[in-house]
Specification:
Arc Repressor Mutant, subunit A, SH3 type barrels, globular, alpha+beta, about 350 residues, 4-stranded antiparallel β-sheet, 3 domains
Length: about 350
Amino acid sequence: MPRKLSPDTTYGQKIVALFARLLFSGEWHGLADLARELECSKQTVLRLVDDVTLSYRVKIDSDLRGGRRYWRIRRSVPAEPAAMLTPQEMDALLMCRAFTRHLLGRQGYGEAERALAKTSQLLAGGGGEDGELGAARFGVFRPGSIDYTPFLGFLQTVTEAMRACRVCEAEYRKPGERRSKRFRFKPLKVFSWRETIYVHGRYAAMPGQKFKDPGHDPLWALQRFRSVRLTDVTFKQPADYDFERALNREFGLLRGGERVRVVADFTGWAADYVAEREWSPAQTLAWRPGGVLRLSYDAASVPEVVSWVLSFGSLCRVVEPQAVVDAVLERLREVSGMYSQARREKG
């Protein structure tokens, strides 16, 4: 017997999920889409549809379009709700769901899917007829993303802690370290950056230990937690906490280093790419002769600047400060030496 695509979900859970999906949306749902969303085979979907018909005694309409099978539950026209969504408002919600799918994990995405199915009842004129909740219209490019399904429980705990202003106790393993460390913290903000979910907050005192303030607000990558639990200790929202001021003023996520003003020149496609984006609120852009774009911006992390500059290859040259120029040159020497050594070893 082949392995189940979703071994943690029972057949009963799948049949309930299918019924809810068909019932709440009133839209046409394709066989391939249902198999993907329910994480099962197409044969299982066919059995689920038959069982829904028998178990719930509902009429499921079936349609064949372009050689593909679609189903829906036909609903009577409901009374007009007190508040209705416009198609544009629904599209905005659908885009939010699609663009964050890879960050939500399987369970979180399923919750968002059910919420949108219920919300579709507020759509002016009723549910749509053009596919499964707009899935055909919006998507996301996911290579390099993290599957957050195993960490959704941590996210829910942190969210509850922020809502109730309760201290969390966690085990966390930093990159390059083999052992995790235990500490307590006050979660203040959850945010995403480069396909990764982070928790921003402040340390709290461990029982029986003297508290030492590190002098900065740390952040933790969600996937590096090994455990997170709520404590009975509460805290007050810090009056001096400002997420935008803390993290959105300079380029770079890491804090604690020297802040620098970086000036760099870009050519080719890199110039257009850089010109389309904001790298720091106080940046300046200036086109120079020969199609060269000069960017000046504030940065809080020199190592991140170096990695970013090198990602453009020969299409980017740092002008100043000299410390960043030297750091880029040093990194280039290291990379060149590594490949030269590998070539010599191959003979």
